[in-house]
Amino acid sequence: MPWNKNKNDVVFALLSGLVLLLVSGTSLFLIFFIVQSSFPELSDFINLWPRLTGESWSPLTNPPTFGIMHAWVSTLIITTISLTLAVPLGILVAVFTVEYAPRRLSLIAIQCTEILAGVPAVVYGFVGFVTLLPAIETLFDLPAGETLLAAGIILAVMILPYIAAIASSSLNSVSIETRIAGLANGVPKFYVLRKVVLKQSLTGIFAGTTLGLAKALGETLAVMMLAGNAVAVPKSVLDRGQPLTSLIATELGEAGVGSPIYEALFSAGATLMVLVISINFLFWKLKGRLSYNG
């Protein structure tokens, strides 16, 4: 009997190790493939800075130019708008469903957020195209409603369910004894929520924000339908733009393997990868600091 238990443990440990090795190997392969496709030769690294800071994307001119500054600036603006809207709204939804809403209403709200999470991106893009774009066009007196603001608002609606769901789980993980102990001291419920419950839930809320950030940076179709796909560097949220994902999706079909535009598009992919890794690292460090202080 002990041998069977040990044998099962060994088999499970080997399978788990193989899965971990497969996942880690896939991640490393993706990083290597993107970097190698962006810079086939080490000498090609000299082209990185001109690509990142170049304001002109014009692959058909002679000589062609492959500046992607407009793309990563558009990506950062749209992501900032979406997180600015979605994070506080997601936390408010979570607080309402966990702390204040009656059970039946809470279940309905949870089901609605789960439905929102399952709606395809093209549906969000279409709804935004027929409702949000005319509203922005009229409100700001613009010739067309395709703007970074429109893409950011729709993207906020798309990532809201993820942030709200994980924030709700984090709030639920705080024990009822903790809440009762705070209320037993005669302090208001809102004070207990703000000083105790939310403080103990911060790490989970940051995890939800990180997940929403990853989805916001990687979303393609909805933002491509609403942002305007302009190759000029945007100066405000009311300008048109073309995020990195839209640039890659729009141009990759016409890029020959190994051509300059092919390498430039993979440079855009590498830039997006670096953005995701860097921002997630910052969130991870901040989450660890909050956990330590808590």
Write the topology of this structure:
Elements lengths: L1 H37 L9 H6 L3 E2 L6 E2 L2 H32 L2 H16 L2 H19 L8 H25 L3 H9 L4 H12 L1 H17 L2 H6 L17 H8 L8 H34 L1
Antiparallel strand pairs: 1-2
Helix pairs in contact: 1-12, 3-4, 3-6, 3-9, 3-11, 4-6, 5-6, 6-9, 7-8, 9-12, 11-12
Q: pLDDT below 50 for ≥5 consecutive residues: which ranges?
A: none
Distance between the termini: 44 Å
Report the portion of residues in β strands.
under 5%
Q: Whole-number radius of gyration?
A: 23 Å
Question: How would you describe this structure to a colleague?
Answer:
- This protein has helices at 2-38, 48-53, 69-100, 103-118, 121-139, 148-172, 176-184, 189-200, 202-218, 221-226, 244-251, 260-293; strands at residues 57-58, 65-66.
- With 294 residues, the protein is mostly helical.
- The chain has 2 domains: 2-38; 57-293, Orthogonal Bundle (MetI-like fold).
- Strand 1 and strand 2 form a beta hairpin.
- The radius of gyration is 23 Å and the shape is globular.
- The model has no long low-confidence stretch (mean pLDDT 84).
